[in-house]
Amino acid sequence: MSTVHNPVLPGCYPDPTVCRVGDTFYLVTSTFEYLPGLPVFRSTDLATWEQIGHVVDRPDQLDYTGLASSSGLYAPTLRHHDGVFYLVCTLVDQKDPARGGNFVMTATDPAGPWSDPHWLGISGIDPSIFFDDDGRAWCHGTRLAEEPEWHDQTEVWLRELDLERLELVGPEHVLWSGALRGAVWAEGPHLSKVDGTYYLLAAEGGTEIHHAVSVARADAVTGPYEGCRANPVLTHRHLGRRADVVGVGHADLVQAPDGSWWAVLLGMRPYGGYHYNLGRETFLVPVEWEDGWPLFAPDRGRVPLEVELPWAVTARPGAAQGATTGVVPATDLRWTAVRALPSEVAVARGAGWDLPLRPSTLSDVDVPAFVGVRQQHRDVDLRAAVVVEPAPGEEAGLAIRQSERDHVRLCVTTAEDGPGRRVVAVHVRGGVSTVLAQLPLDGPASEPVGLVLSARGQDYRLLVEQGTGDRLRRTTVATVDGRTLDTVAAGGFLGLWLGAYGSSNGRPTSSVARVQQVEYCPVG
């Protein structure tokens, strides 16, 4: 018996989907505009998760050009059938709904390589796939109701999938439009078959504080579906904004080798008021069956912060779960870039990166010179030693990224109106850029400059370190209120990313910033 701490994947790992093959569990989450996309995790006990790859890890698999923040890859579903892994997902462009759509990818090894997308030619979001006992496969997903009774009413559709051609065939069936009248965004549907009965799991209420898990069942996969009288079967909406976990929903069921049932789902941990800078995280809850219905978190009715796993002897969180501290090597699978692979914007150098500056900035819907990792802890220091000699108007250093319209930069720059390098702190809030402070730098350009992003709750201090040993000086350049950076304040669907950044701010350049190493150090 061992205790696992929730969330099992801290930081921005939303919309979890899980399946089991033999004694091994596999899990994938959403990634939106970040690449590589759709991280794949492996576990033998549901407690310790190891990242083994990504589904989208080649430049030519999907086109991210022009995808604004919180567009991109939404809500995947992972399943295994007859020796093949199937991943269905949606590419979303919030500015151009006609672009993208639902697709399926396949692999014989979940670590990759995965196939190019097979487009399903159907609109909507949150596609899922179900393999029945008779060998037939069924795709289902969410779309806005064609004749809605209320605003943002959605419906869950179902069609058969031809596994040879990976095409939808046969008639369409509308299965569900929500457990409650007036419920918005009945989404994230997943079908399961237990003891001959079909169960449809869905989220509804919108992916924020009113999020919830509902369930329906039927004798045939095509319906009709009967809703559980206990719906929603799991939610924290009634606990209010001061709850330790809010926004619980988007669940997926899995059965363990011992016959027990479990669910992974998303939730957010607010702190400093109703703000959740770490984004939507992946939680684990036990499930039992009672009177033919799934019972989530029995005896509690809410997501626990600790879960007892009877078969896990020792629960040792891995690197993907934020358990490591210190240098994050460039080979670490947590590194991501925006609308491009890290290898397309930077050159890995052991424990660090060579980062060629780009004309694009973090405010542009383009590919910036940025490589980052998710913030996975409330209290953490991200530290980097940067060597750069920027031309006037150029900058390189560290950044806290929420979106194009909301981010923070702590960079070494050379002013156009005077000699000498300096460190500048800039906060872009709602698209408006404000220089918070500047600090002149001593020493030659060949000397590394230590930069630190230091989060303590909702206080994000931006610091510079100069000198070495007994002569090390640590100076606070500025402090940013983190409550201006989360999705409650800024909108969107993402938590915060911390990383290295550089830009020539619209000009051609040959400047390169050498980020000698990046350290991610949780505190406490």
Protein described:
- This protein has 524 residues and is an all-beta fold.
- It has two domains: 320 residues, Glycosyl hydrolase domain, family 43 (Tachylectin-2, Chain A, 5 Propeller); 197 residues, Sandwich (Jelly Rolls), CATH 2.60.120.
- The protein has two helices and 39 strands.
- Strands 4-26-29-38-31-32-33-34 form an eight-stranded antiparallel β-sheet, with no helix packed on it.
- The longest helix is centred in the middle third of the chain and has 4 residues.
- The chain is globular.
- It starts with a strand and ends with a strand.
- The mean pLDDT is 95.
Helix content class: under 10%
Radius of gyration: 23 Å
Whole-number total of structural domains: 2
Count the E strands.
39
The DSSP helix count reads 2
Write the layout of secondary structure elements.
Blueprint: E1 2-5, E2 17-21, E3 24-28, E4 34-35, E5 37-43, E6 50-56, E7 72-81, E8 84-92, E9 100-107, E10 118-119, E11 125-131, E12 137-144, E13 154-162, E14 167-176, E15 187-194, E16 197-204, E17 212-218, E18 226-227, E19 234-235, E20 246-255, E21 261-268, E22 281-290, E23 293-296, E24 306-309, E25 326-327, E26 336-338, H1 342-345, E27 347-349, E28 352-356, E29 369-374, E30 379-387, E31 395-401, E32 406-414, E33 421-429, E34 432-440, E35 449-456, E36 459-466, E37 473-481, H2 487-490, E38 497-503, E39 512-522
Antiparallel strand pairs: 1-24, 2-3, 3-5, 4-26, 5-6, 7-8, 8-9, 9-10, 11-12, 12-13, 13-14, 15-16, 16-17, 17-18, 17-19, 20-21, 21-22, 22-23, 25-39, 26-29, 27-28, 28-39, 29-38, 30-35, 30-39, 31-32, 31-38, 32-33, 33-34, 35-36, 36-37
